[in-house]
Amino acid sequence: MQIALANPTHISEVVSFFNENLERNNSAVYSEEFLCPLGVKAAIRRKQMIVATVEGQVVGAFRFYRKKTQNKISLYQFAISKIYRGQGLLKKMLKTINDLPIISLCPTYSYLNDYYYKSGWYLQEQNEEFNVWIFND
User: Which pLDDT tens digit goes with each residue over 4-14?
Assistant: First the structure.
């Protein structure tokens, strides 16, 4: 398995990967931007997408951006292939950029909050709309 910054040759494969692994009705998908191929393309061009590949196939991907004013990295969107879920792949991928704390928003009503809790993220703050989870490994 290889984990690396996505490059422009990955664009169509990453777009397809997210289309296959992110469902519109998923309670964690709180923005239409998560489903927009142009956002994926722009993130790859800005060097803000990490991919995990096995034999050239994308099995995990996430989009992130560094918050210059807050000294944090925001995890914006991620997906892991069904066969690689439950194996700690996202954590392995996050460690490649974890020079600052990584934060992620999750709607308060989403089942994905259980994932954050069980996989060792810390609940930093909560409001009516979102839980703010932090990863600092």
Answer: 999 999 999 99
CA 81/CA 90 separation, integer angstroms: 11
Contact 28, 107 (CB under 8 A): yes
Q: Give backbone dihedrals phi and psi of 84, rounded to 5 degrees, phi first.
A: -105, 0
Q: For residue 68, what is the enclosing H or E element?
A: none
Six token digits for residue 101: 């704390």
Phi, psi dihedrals of residue 74, rounded to the nearest 5°? -100, 120
Closest CA to 71 of 2, 7, 4, 134: 134
Separation between Cα atoms, residue 12 and residue 86, nearest integer Å:
26
Contact 93, 104 (CB under 8 A): no
DSSP state of 53: E
DSSP letters, 82-100, are GGGTTTTHHHHHHTTTTTS
Overall pTM surpassing 0.85 (yes/no): yes
